[in-house]
Design goal:
TIM Barrel; 324 residues; eight-stranded parallel sheet; alpha/beta
């Protein structure tokens, strides 16, 4: 496993991270499988574990906290997020000072930690001034409750405003963003990566395999694999990606991956890591073997001719998409 700095900051992250969004905690057998996956992560050199208060109603945080207790605090970097409703009250969601403070305390209690390494604004809150949000997060850094803070699905304008407000008011600056980024969704290449490079923010993308599309398990003209995400996912995000155009690209990408002797999923992760602005890639894994395969993307250099092939296949053109 190789490691990169979080942007210009001193914190080192494993190039491959383990996220908790798809962690199955439905029964004791599922919990045991999830634990084995986290244990495998440490064996592979993964040191970054991403979570959120909204994942499984807090159960994901509680599970992760129990497993991490078996390791030295200095061994790992752990993150969580705040924004989505955690109750029915008018103040139990969003990015107000009140909700940020209360929810951070809940996340720390859930995980049995004194501090979080990274804390993200899960989405943008149009009902709260940005200055209130960054002031609250800056205060939490100075209190030692979080070490670095950042945002997830914010627009370039929103992120830039947060940076400028922080600078103008002598506040701690955001240090990291967690956007969606993969071969099928490259919007951050248009503006966001340049902003992050200018101000030294780290970039830790989620959904690097486009909900499973870039694993190669979904093939043109073939039925959905039994038990795959496309057969059970409630919001059907993956189903919306299974277009004829995308499946044709997958077929072409599979040939590139085969020529390099790697699985498509590994090629897709290494393709993201080709960008120097990327600090780590947050992957999901339902079992240890998936994470073991993902980890082989760390340090994998894609030859220039293969990169040219990929660009032709993807045929990307800048566009404006809704963020968040």
């Amino acid at each position: 496993m190789q490691y990169r700095n979080l942007g210009k900051w001193g914190l080192k992250l494993s190039e491959i991270a383990l996220g908790s969004w798809v962690t199955n905690l439905a029964d004791s057998a599922a919990v045991e499988t999830a634990k084995k996956t986290v244990d495998a992560a440490f064996d592979l050199g993964v040191n970054f574990f991403d979570c959120a208060d909204a994942y499984s109603g807090g159960e994901a945080e509680r599970f992760l906290g129990k497993v991490l207790k078996e390791h030295r605090r200095s061994e790992y970097v752990v993150s969580s997020k705040v924004f989505f409703p955690m109750g029915r009250g008018a103040n139990e969601w969003g990015l107000s000072r009140k909700h940020i403070k209360e929810q951070l305390e809940t996340s720390l209690k859930n995980m049995g930690l004194d501090y979080l390494d990274l804390y993200f604004c899960h989405r943008f809150d149009p009902t709260t001034p940005i200055e209130e949000t960054v002031q609250a997060l800056s205060d939490l850094v100075r209190e030692g409750k979080i070490l670095y803070y950042g945002v997830s699905e914010w627009s370039p304008v929103q992120l830039t405003e947060a940076i400028h407000i922080s600078k103008e008011n002598g506040l701690v600056l955001p240090a990291v963003i967690q956007p969606q980024y993969n071969m099928t969704d490259r919007y951050i290449e248009d503006e966001m990566l340049a902003i992050c490079e200018k101000y030294g923010l780290g970039v830790v993308p989620f959904s690097p395999l486009a909900q499973g599309l870039l694993t190669g398990k979904y093939r043109k003209g073939m039925p959905l694999p039994e038990g795959s995400r496309a057969t059970w996912q409630a919001d059907r995000q993956i189903n919306r990606l299974l277009t004829e155009e995308n499946l044709e690209k997958v077929e072409a990408l599979l040939k590139v991956a085969e020529g390099l002797g790697v699985p498509l999923s590994v090629l897709a992760l290494a393709w993201i890591l080709r960008k120097k602005q990327i600090s780590s890639v947050i992957t999901g894994a339902s079992k240890a073997s998936q994470l073991t395969a993902n980890a082989t993307a760390s340090g994998l250099a894609i030859p220039d001719d293969a990169l040219e092939q990929i660009e032709k296949i993807l045929d990307y053109h800048p566009f404006v998409r809704r963020v968040g």
